[in-house]
Design brief:
CATH class of the largest domain: Alpha Beta
Shape: elongated
Largest sheet: 5 strands, antiparallel
Oligomer: single chain
Structural class: alpha/beta
CATH topology of the largest domain: Rossmann fold
Strand content: 15-25%
Distance between the termini: 101 Å
Strand order of the largest sheet: 2-1-5-4-3
Radius of gyration: 36 Å
Length: 485
């Protein structure tokens, strides 16, 4: 008796382990049936499941299939109110079927043909099978939860990739001026191949955006895009980050780690600020570009990867080569197809489309509805030299949104750096009267813009008379004709 109970406990332990391992779910159920056939007098067993869509999954094990056994299992599934069933199969066997219920819904049936001696008490065996059926039902529930979460994550991943692809489609990149159109033409030319690309330009010009556009308009768009900020990595960790390391390669390397090249296999690796790489790492990077192979730090296995490399730098590479801080041979390996992103000061036609883009984007994030940018504010944006390029413009619009409490973004909402004498031609120091006059001039110009230069309508909009408005227009030297459509 003790041996039987011990065998039952051992079976439940093995079944629990089988149901929770990493094998495909049907293989796990198959193992449970194998254990029963091997140790508990089961002639044949069946676990039949019905998924949420009504599809049937059936796992069987034991002696050759018996149509009557299958029909009895199907009968349990067809019952409106399923219940455990025990039916004699002659004097030395019985059919035992237990419903598998998940969240109060019939999910399947667990049926066995059980061999036993005539007149033996089946109740202990039935109790054991009920516990096993409960384990199977719990495993089914966990499996469905995991599969549901996996399906959700896969769909979310597909959605995000689709949104990224749409975001970086060439028509969606903001830039109408000649210099930017030339950049977009170059992106369209190089995106379809596997050519290494070097993107050059000042900090804040949008080099990473161009790298994204190349990747998401290429055949690799569904594969990984892995970014490495070379300037942000400590010199001692650059090699490990790029090529990975083996367990014990250095202090703190407690496990094997894949590098960025491995993670980007089949996709694109973007090396941002590649000019900051130490010389020792530049040598290894040169080998990867030449041979398409490398070893992990502390390892001997040679790994081959299929990676498209895009690099970006804001440094004067030619000067770095002359100074001995950048390898000339690596430069020529990277500079297969060069894209130069012009600074914002050379892209004046792009300033307002970019400003309106950031106004809409940041307005949604901050839940503010700014209808337009006033004419004086536009003049100030156009007059500024933008040393921080597109990134500085985005920050300026973000700051203006914070302080703006109306539906129009005015000049006084822009950062003080845009309102200096160097940037906008205003006085170096202003009195209260000067500041008041400047604010009044902005309001009048904005009203005239709204009314297309009609003084009478502008006066009504401002709550004053046409005569007073005419006096102010003359005083501030405002040209009404510039606002007429």
């Amino acid at each position: 008796m003790e041996a039987l109970e011990s065998r039952k406990l051992q079976t439940l332990l093995e079944a629990s382990q089988s149901l929770s391992n990493a094998l495909p779910f049907e293989s796990r159920l198959q193992r449970v049936l194998e254990i029963l056939v091997r140790h508990h007098g089961v002639v044949r067993g069946t676990i039949a499941l019905v998924d949420e869509l009504g599809e049937r999954i059936e796992v069987r094990h034991g002696r050759p299939d018996d149509p009557e056994h299958q029909a009895r299992c199907q009968g349990i599934l067809d019952e409106a109110s399923p219940r455990p069933r025990v039916e004699p199969l002659g004097d030395e066997a019985s059919f035992v079927a237990l419903p598998l219920v998940v969240e109060k819904k019939l999910t399947g049936v667990f049926g066995v043909d059980l061999a036993h001696r005539e007149g033996s008490n089946l109740e202990p065996v039935l109790q054991f099978l009920r516990v096993l059926a409960s384990l199977i039902a719990q495993a089914v529930q966990v499996h469905r939860l995991i599969e549901g979460e996996r399906a959700r994550l896969l769909e979310e991943n597909r959605t995000l990739r689709r949104e990224l692809g749409e975001r970086y489609e060439l028509p969606n990149l903001v830039g109408n001026g000649g210099p930017m159109r030339q950049v977009l033409d170059q992106v369209a030319q190089v995106a379809g191949g596997t050519t290494t690309v070097l993107i050059r330009g000042e900090s804040g010009t949008g080099k990473e955006l161009i790298a994204h556009a190349i990747h998401y308009n290429s055949p690799r768009a569904q594969r990984p895009f892995v970014r490495v900020s070379c300037a942000a990595l400590p010199e001692t960790l650059v090699e490990s980050e790029l090529f990975g390391h083996e367990k014990g390669a250095f202090t703190g390397a407690h496990a094997r780690k894949k590098g960025r090249f491995e993670l980007a296999d089949g996709g694109t690796l973007f090396l941002d600020e590649v000019g900051e790489l130490p010389l020792a790492t530049q040598v290894k990077l040169l080998r990867v570009l030449q041979e398409r192979e490398f070893e992990r730090l502390g390892g001997t296995e040679t790994l081959r990867v299929d990676v498209r490399l895009i690099a970006a730098t804001n440094r004067d590479v030619e000067k770095a080569i002359a100074a001995g801080t950048f390898r000339e041979d690596l430069y020529y390996r990277l500079d297969v197809f060069a894209v130069f992103v012009p600074p914002l000061r050379d892209r004046k036609p792009d300033i307002m489309p970019l400003a309106e883009h950031f106004l809409a984007k940041l307005g949604r994030e901050q839940r503010k509805k700014i209808r337009r940018i006033s004419t004086p504010a536009i003049d100030m944006l156009m007059a500024y030299h933008w040393p921080g390029n597109v990134r500085e413009l985005e920050n300026a619009i973000a700051r203006a949104l914070v302080v703006c409490d109306g539906s129009v973004l005015h000049a006084h909402h822009l950062p003080p750096t845009l309102q200096t004498a160097e940037a906008s031609g205003t006085a170096e120091a202003r009195t209260l009267a000067d500041a008041t006059a400047a604010f009044e001039r902005d309001l009048i110009a904005d009203a005239l813009k709204s009314t297309q230069g009609n003084r009478a309508k502008a006066a009504r909009l401002l709550g004053t008379s046409e005569r007073i408005l005419g006096y102010k227009v003359t005083k501030y030297g405002i040209d009404c004709t510039r606002f007429r459509g």
